[in-house]
Amino acid sequence: MSASGSGLVVERLRVRFGGLTAVDDVSFAVREGEVLSLIGPNGAGKTSAFNAITGYIQPASGEIRYRGARLTGLRPNAIAALGVVRTFQKTSVFAGQTVHDNVAIGLHLRSRQRPLAILAGLPSVTREEARLARETAEILAFVGLKARRDAIAAALPYGELRLLEVAIALAAKPTLLLLDEPVSGMNPVETASFMRLLGEIRERGITVLLVEHDMRMVMGVSDRIVCLNQGHVIASGTPAEIRGHPEVIAAYLGTKYVHQG
Amino acid sequence: MKRALTAAWLLFLASIPLWLTDLYALHVLIMTGIFIIAAMSLNLLLGYTGQLSLGHVAFFGIGAYVSSLVSLGFEVHLLPDWAVRLAPKPVWLAMLCGIVLAGLSGWVIGRISFKVRGAYFVIVTVSFAEVVRLVALNWVELTQGPMALNNIPALRLGLPGVAELTFLRKSANYWLMFTIAVLCYVLIRRLVRSRAGRAMVALRENEALATSVGVDVTQYLVLATVVSAAMAGAAGVLYAHYVRIVDPDVFLFIYTVTMVIMVISGGKGTQAGPIVGGLIFGLLPEVLRAAAIKPEVQWVIYGVLMILIVYFLPEGIVPAVRHWWRGRVSTAAAP
Lengths: 261, 335
Hints:
The complex is a heterodimer. Chain A is α/β, with parallel strands linked by helices.
């Protein structure tokens, strides 16, 4: 797969909840190595699209492929095993566990211990546990939570909780990372440092699909943007194109933002 | 230091039959130990995966019945002219069968409840236990029903004629129970400190997030159920060949409740919890009886103590003590 090839392909995706069609005939592709943002007003179908891609809801029709493999119909854990890992819109961590253990759980896909080997207490398990501890430390250092290693997740301040979520997702070794409103509720300083982190994630060759309302962040980090409204794609293109797109302005950005930008 | 402390503890526990001359007290300890094994197994499910098996006694009873039947032999007529016959087998083999069959029934429960959580898991397990109890009560040809299985042989180990050890004495049964208990403890410890244990905790804490990082939660719930059921089965097996009589009352709901009380009061999700809870609620009735308190008052004290523990230490005794200890250490370190 070439660097500019399409990693994730979403084709004619349709998601229904009873009589409501949340996502209607949506197609887009995320190229390997890029940051693509999904924007749009609340209820536009961004999170529904996320849930369909990661297997948390079954689409009514349409197809989702990642690096040639069909994701539709797979369970979330099987999709994660293919390298497609998400975070959640509502803060979602293993609240009662330490920061270290949160990330260690995320490392699940990077370990190979079999139940019988565990029960037999084989040295290979001990060796692997030592490796996982090193990898946990490495990830915590990467997101900047090293000092919080032994804190209980529930006791973390909000900004650090959101970093922990990203750390857990990174632990699963994604090649495509889906972030659902990662900076919502963060202050500007935290948002700025999160943007730096996103840059570093990208340098590691991880493709990013982002859902976000913070337009400074979206315009700053995205290679391309897809704008949804009422379940439909109304525009897609570079940040500059989206910023000037009349339909996007009408449905979402508002005229005020254009003057500022 | 920590290792030396553990060794000293084990040595102390192992030495009890050598200096404890009161056979009744030893009997109480054996029964408590058997219940602690069952409580430890329940804790693996309730404490780590967060799923409450309110029919846990089923696995205990299955272990007890299977092991008894295999060691006694049986003949059942499934069809008018077709009988299944089993000659008595050596007790160690019967015990193994009991543990394996309990584990297998755990696998079945784990599989059929693969999408049910919380209250639904409770209902599946309760129903299962009740069905098994009714079978044990009514399939008289196999189980003798309420007449009970009698004269269950004790475990006999060694080469016949050369050296043989029969587990008839209380001390021998204590050591057998103790060995199995330590073995179960070690196995659970390995499990919960591994990838599998983390997956179980992940299921308890946040199932959606667990699946998002690739944890096949169902697989680990089944694993926990199998291991847990096999260990409860082991406790039942020990019970059967120690008490040497098994009736359908081993499936009574109150035994599951006792296990749950032990796990919750001691501290679910901690390894020491079921042991502490088991010691308290296993020995308490005997202590109260020895204090010559009227029976009805004994149970009132039992109940009140239980409520007090749950009310004041909702996390259980072990986490509370740990928390308190940590607080002490940190205030001592930072004056």
